[in-house]
Amino acid sequence: MDTEGACMVKDFVSHLFPRVVLRNNLRLSYTLCLGGLAFTAFLSLVVSGTLLLFYYAPTPGGAFESILFFEAQVPGGRYLRSLHRVASHAFLVLIFLHVLRVILTGAYRHPREWNWVIGFLLLGLGLFEAYTGYLLPMDQLALWATQTGMELLATLPGGGLLRTFLVPDGIGLKLSLLRFYALHIAILPLTILTLSLLHFYRVRRNKGLLPYL
């Protein structure tokens, strides 16, 4: 790992586990550590999603049946799937509120403009991550919601090409389900984790509102 990458990892860990914390920053405020809470929700999604992988069958004929089996036959299965769903909602709400706080407090201004871009990308990726996960249960709600999203995407400039890439053989068919699955469990989570690492690194580099960093 090069020096810059090692520094990013070090600052990421230091941001999560700082050596010193000011007493005033321990008080509850209207922000409630929204960024940290969003990252905690993301970690909950990673853990619960990893456990779900052991039972999910990413095939058009097996996806819905595997979820029914998981909820009915696996101890704690219904709770774990519900936890994954609630954590996904919390993740999106917390990121949105965090972005809103940044806008209202003007924290996007110099020298934090690049971190603002990273944060906004995290919001967009979070929404896309939730959308790709919506198809995986392969029930009627998932199919029709994904169909609606793809039709809306096709109306945007270049959206037709992206739709063809995501759904080459039709909503819920073999290739489209496999691509949504790969995006949801690997590509998007790794991208979100990398950008989160960079985001925390930039917070410490910019010092922000934390003079003890």
Task: Walk me through this protein's architecture.
- The chain has helices spanning 3-16, 34-53, 63-73, 77-105, 113-135, 140-154, 159-166, 174-206.
- With 213 residues, it is mainly α.
- The protein has one domain (30-206): Cytochrome Bc1 Complex, Chain C.
- α2 runs antiparallel to α4 and α4 (77-105) runs antiparallel to α5 (113-135).
- The longest helix has 33 residues, at 174-206.
- The two termini are 24 Å apart.
- 23% of the residues are buried.
Structural features:
213 residues; mainly alpha; Cytochrome Bc1 Complex, Chain C; 72% helix; 0% strand
Quick overview of this protein structure:
By secondary structure, the chain is mainly alpha-helical. The chain has a single domain (30-206), classed as Cytochrome Bc1 Complex, Chain C (Up-down Bundle).
Main sheet, how many strands, which sense, barrel? none
Number of domains: 1
Q: Report the portion of residues in β strands.
A: under 5%
Rg of Cα set: 19 Å
- What string, H for helix and E for strand, traces the elements in order? HHHHHHHH
Uncertain runs are: none
Structural class: mainly alpha
Quaternary organization: single chain
Q: CATH homologous superfamily? A: Cytochrome Bc1 Complex, Chain C
CATH fold-level name: Cytochrome Bc1 Complex, Chain C
Outline: globular
Note the total helix count.
8
Number of strands: 0
Proportion in helices = over 70%
Based on the coordinates given, report the CATH architecture. Answer: Up-down Bundle
Distance between the termini: 24 Å
**Global mean pLDDT:** 89
CATH class wording: Mainly Alpha
